[in-house]
Design goal:
Length: 196
């Protein structure tokens, strides 16, 4: 199998899903929206304290990380509605076989309309079909039952709970629900998605 050459962080092509949902690389003009979204109470609940200024937000979103991470704005019919990213967990080794993803829908009126699962599936389609990854993971807070259901709907399987896997802004620790999807499971998941 031909492996995909990793792109440098900060450089990426647009990802267009089979149903037209667009994931476009984040840029400086997106910072006001991302800053506003990060201050939404629902996003704060699961993503933690937001940046204090747009400058801090720009630093978080646009500066190259030590670990490769690519960030995107979720666009539905020309409207920016949320944020999704993928990153390689094992940057100091042969990291092209596995990636983790994170997502939130920032516009309140865009929630509970299936855009989260659609964005996740669009990202999965890219990661499995273009990058030829072996595994994709996601690890929401165990208390975020809505997210866990959405990820299962997107094709992920529950592997287990990672105890104290996340340190919250208040210094306490949260357990996360670890879910994964493997490359040999993707064709069936994709077929169910496209036939729905």
């Amino acid at each position: 199998m031909t492996r995909y050459t990793p792109l440098p962080p900060g450089e990426h092509e647009r990802i267009v899903g089979p149903r037209g949902l667009l994931l476009r690389p984040i840029n400086a003009s997106d910072i006001p929206s991302v800053f506003r979204w990060r201050h939404d109470p629902e996003v704060i609940q699961w993503w933690g304290d937001p940046p204090e200024s747009e400058a801090e937000s720009a630093e978080e979103e646009l500066e190259t990380d030590v670990n490769p991470c690519w960030r995107f704005i979720i666009c539905e019919d020309g409207r920016d509605v949320g944020y999704i990213q993928y990153w390689h967990q094992y940057a100091d080794t042969d990291y092209d076989w596995s990636a983790g993803i994170d997502i939130y829908i920032g516009e309140p009126d865009a929630r509970d309309r299936g855009l989260g699962p659609e964005a996740v599936r669009t990202m999965l389609d890219y990661l499995f079909e273009v990058k030829h990854l072996h595994r994709v993971t996601i690890d929401p807070d165990v208390r975020n039952a809505r997210a866990v259901r959405a990820y299962e709907k997107s094709g992920f399987r529950i592997d287990g709970i990672l105890r104290h896997n996340e340190k919250r802004d208040d210094g306490t620790y949260a357990d996360t629900q670890y879910l994964s999807l493997l490359e040999d499971e993707w064709p069936e998941v994709k077929q169910r998605w496209l036939n729905a």
